[in-house]
Amino acid sequence: MYDFNYHKPQTVKDALSLFKEADDGIYLAGGHTLIPAMKVRLRAPTDVIDLSGVDGLIGIREESGALVIGALTTHDTVATSEVVARAIPALNSLAASIGDAQVRNRGTIGGSVANNDPAADYPAGVLALGATIKTDRREISASEFFTAMFETALEEDELIQSISFPIVESAAYIKFPNPASRYATVGVFISRHGGQVSVAITGAAATVFRCPEMEQALSDNFAEVALDSIQLNADDMNSDMHASAEYRAHLCVVMAKRAVASMS
């Protein structure tokens, strides 16, 4: 490690002020991406602003037909929450599939969403459920939030405070995990509400995306067989030592079928 200034503010206002005053500040949530990046000097901020002491960023509640989760709420809290289980149990399953116990007890939903790792799990749930990301200054719809690999619509100093998920009739998340990291080689989140079907896919491409072909097919006939004719283009898929682009395109359909089967 190298020298940097460490801050632990108690309010959102103080956190924003510290960021503004820093030469090269960065927010610290769970730290699972930031700390390893700092160790190998991929990130070298002058100031690290630890959000763990900020009041009001942790908690889960139902509010006006939505499930609201504070940005600093850990994956384990989401995975074991009875409130989540009543409202959107698919989010319990999603959170429980992240990493291992150590990761789930430190990692946070806001940190995951803000980081927008192309193989992260939460972005699929956020996009498929049509969630709203609430920051210190505005509300951002999921459809506008994820812009590119590790990039979002957040401004440099903007801070996620909570994420609001509309409560749907049914939903499921199924992924093919990397056996070492548990990141999604491909993960598919499907939600169904009022006759409308949303399908979001993570792990397959540079960023999470909706799949209109699957959505149309499942809206017409919500059954595994409705996806038999779907063949996704592999040109924009990720390809690495774990899976080729063609294999990921195939896995998208397989995981979607499994998600549909779990909802039947």
Describe the structure.
The protein has 264 residues and is an alpha+beta fold. It has 3 domains: 5-53, Uridine Diphospho-n-acetylenolpyruvylglucosamine Reductase, domain 2 (2-Layer Sandwich); 60-166, Uridine Diphospho-n-acetylenolpyruvylglucosamine Reductase, domain 3, CATH 3.30.465; 170-263, 2-Layer Sandwich (Enolase-like, domain 1), CATH 3.30.390. The protein has helices spanning 12-21, 34-39, 75-80, 82-87, 89-96, 101-106, 109-115, 122-128, 142-145, 212-220, 245-263, and strands spanning 5-7, 25-28, 47-50, 60-63, 66-70, 132-135, 139-141, 146-148, 151-152, 160-166, 170-177, 184-193, 196-202, 209-210. The strands form 4 sheets. The protein has a 5-stranded antiparallel β-sheet with strand order 4-5-10-6-7. Strands 11-12-13-14 form a 4-stranded antiparallel β-sheet, sandwiched between helices. The model has no long low-confidence stretch (mean pLDDT 95).
